[in-house]
Predict the structure.
Amino acid sequence: MLLGIELVACPHCRRSGALIVATLCGTQISWFAAVFFLLEPQSPLGMWRTFSVALMTVLGGFVVSTLTLFCFAQAVLGGLTRRAAWLREASGALSLSSGYRLWRRLQGAQSALRSRLSREASAPLCAAREPLAQLLAHFGAVSGEAGPDLFAVFQAHTQCALFEPYRA
């Protein structure tokens, strides 16, 4: 999960190659942050300046995994009602109102997401008439795959949260 962290630059001194994981914080539902410290070659104790990073498999500002939201959207596009799809994908861990709230958030963010995706790759031809299906096809074109969790791939690629306001 944290492979390659030693290659990430420290936000304090901008050096890379010496980050060490100190602790990993999270719940059983989702892991959401890791605390790091930087080892300095001059000091055996290191710099000890900590910072947190968001893991790309969780929606920013939510305790919902990107995979849950992605599977929820696919289930609705597959013909299930939003209620049935959320109950199946959330496995009773989250309330039904959370599912409706995330659905509204996903629907409302489509134009901003399309703008961000268009900066990465042009929209592919899609036979689906549903705008959300076209959006998911665009996610697949940007990530270059049709994997199980295109939202996490997108967050990792763009280094910003899925529902973060669009920045030019």
Notes: Residues 96-108 form the longest helix (13 residues). The chain has six helices and three strands.
